[in-house]
Amino acid sequence: MKTGLKGSLVLGFFLTGSAVAGSAAEVSPAITIRVSNQAEVDLMTLVQAEKTATGIFKKTGVESRWIEPAAEGSFPLSHIQLKILPSVMSLRSGLPDKFPDNAMGLAPGSGPDRQSAYVFYDSVEAVATKHTADTHANTAQILGHAIAHEIGHLLLNVQTHSAAGIMRGAWNLRDLQNAGYGYLFFTPQQAKAIRDDVGRRVRQSQERRYGPDAPWFFLASGLRDQWFDANDCAAVLIPHPQARERSGLLHLHVANVGFMRQ
Ligand SMILES: [Zn+2]
After folding, report:
1. Domain map of the chain by residue range?
2. CA-CA distances (angstroms) from residue 123 to 88, 119, 260?
3. CATH second-level architecture of 8-194?
4. How far, in Å, from the CA of 199 to the mean position of ligand 1?
5. I need a surface site. Which of 17, 110, 165, 186 has the fewest CB within 10 A?
């Protein structure tokens, strides 16, 4: 197709920016986790826990960003609000019937667009203290796994647990040992579902954010690295305020996606 278009106006779509780092490899979708540290977990433990959870999500093909928002307010679907509470008792409402006192976390509600998860730090600490001699899993590691598990409920859109891996409902010593050694993960099927859901959340967030410009974005994302006749793409030949000349090529930028006219 490319050679047949010689001499005509040809468009190439590509992604720009750090997301691809110059590679044509598939870009990992990214989830943003808004951390509210109401349990006042010490910074070193919190950072280590975030690192642990980042590694677990990375293994599924999802990047994670951790932020501490200054204020609560509306945020896109690709953001998850994580509250680390001192204990179950800190949560006054929304608890399911017979909710166990020693639960390490909760992902309340139902439906595919849930964005809130809770982790109860006293339960995490209790498990860590009780089993550390046998498992070598420290508080930060268990906290990181508990965070990934609760966010897993949101991204998998399940309230139930699985027979294997990090989504097991109750972790036994072996699970905790695996957590300590960094071997407690989502199953391959769960990893795919998580990747798909984060991709969906990112797409929907961008659609909402960019409004009428969004079709560009998705057309461009879907067609990158391919070549098309300009007639095929007339709909996207719209001047944009962020258009700029670089290296003799006209780049029209929409978010981190641009297209190039030769
Ligand atoms: Zn669970």
Report:
1. 8-194, 213-261
2. 8, 9, 54
3. 3-Layer(aba) Sandwich (3.40)
4. 22
5. 110
